[in-house]
Amino acid sequence: MQHGPAVRRRKLGEELRALRDRSGLTSGEAARIVGWHQSKISRIETGRSGVKPEDIRLLLDAYGEFVSPEQRALLEALSASAAGPGPGGDTGRGRQWWHDYRGLLPQEYRDFISLEAGARSARTVELSVVPGLLQTPDYARAVTRAALGGLPEPKVDALVEVRLARQSVLRADPPLELSAVLDEAVLRRQIGGPGVMAEQLRHLARVARLPQVSLQVLPFSVGGHLGLTGPFVIFSFTNIADLDVVVLDHLTSSLYLERKEDLEAYGAAFRTIQAHALPPQDSSELISSLADDA
């Protein structure tokens, strides 16, 4: 979290302070247990200081039985404390394989992957491309080449590898619960050519049958809708609703929204967009029909 948004640091500090209070320790007592000065506890709990991975582990150990396994897993994932193998190995929830790509991925992308790996659920609206978690290798390659023109092929390969490794969250135990609403334009835009697009559509039809995935299509017939302001993702986390976050992607940066008012506004927007979209079964039938015609 030392690289995360300031609001997230503050909210993480609030959760750590609540755990300390639940354990019955004063800040001074907690500081003595972990071998720190009391001011460090204060800086962390007020969000004025980032939290290193080893700091999180020490604090959670100090609070012992008052920390549930779910809270520990989430807070460790958010603070980048869980070490793990690269994409070729086990990519279970919270294992930070993406650090192997530090020289390739900007910090904001690593932050996004960290949130995705620790989240219980994700709600996303996409207007232009298939969400990364649902892309085929060839589609991911075509999108990467189009978005980052002129990139050397080895870097394209590495970025596609990262995109595919991210998809492990859908196969984890427990898996990420994904609710995605795709504008009909996503299905009709010929990214990578007819063959690549046909396989991508068939893949969407298959993945839509997974119990942890809800996939809906927003048809052209809806006309104007709230999603026209741009795509977004809402991440939600087990047991700590205050750490939910909305992510807005821009060409050169990502914006993290975490105020209660923002979360409520985007949550309501997603529900409205979802209500105007085709039901999941009708969406699957449309996707399969387009795949057959491709």
Q: What is the topological layout?
A:
Blueprint (H helix, E strand, L loop, with lengths): L5 H18 L3 H8 L3 H8 L7 H11 L5 H10 L28 H12 L2 E6 L10 H11 L5 H14 L10 E7 H5 L5 H14 L5 E6 L13 E5 L8 E5 L4 E4 L2 H17 L3 H14 L1
Parallel strand pairs: 1-2, 2-3
Antiparallel strand pairs: 1-4, 4-5, 5-6
Helix pairs in contact: 2-3, 5-6, 7-8, 10-12
Could you list some keywords that capture this structure?
single chain; Transcriptional regulator; about 50% helix; 12 helices; DUF5753; Cro/C1-type_HTH; alpha/beta; six-stranded mixed β-sheet; Lambda_DNA-bd_dom_sf
Mean pLDDT, all residues: 85
Strand content: 5-15%
Secondary-structure element pattern, one letter each: HHHHHHEHHEHHEEEEHH
Strand order of the largest sheet: 3-2-1-4-5-6
Which percent range fits the helix content?
40-55%
Poorly predicted regions are 80-92
Looking at the structure, what is the overall shape?
elongated
Computed structural class: alpha/beta
Describe the sheet with the most strands: 6 strands, mixed
Instruction: Give the helix tally.
Output: 12
Strand tally:
6
For the CA atoms, what is the radius of gyration?
21 Å
Q: Between the first and last Cα atoms, what is the distance in angstroms?
A: 45 Å
Organism: Streptomyces virginiae (Streptomyces cinnamonensis)
Domain HTH cro/C1-type: 16-72
Protein name: Transcriptional regulator
Pfam families: DUF5753, HTH_31
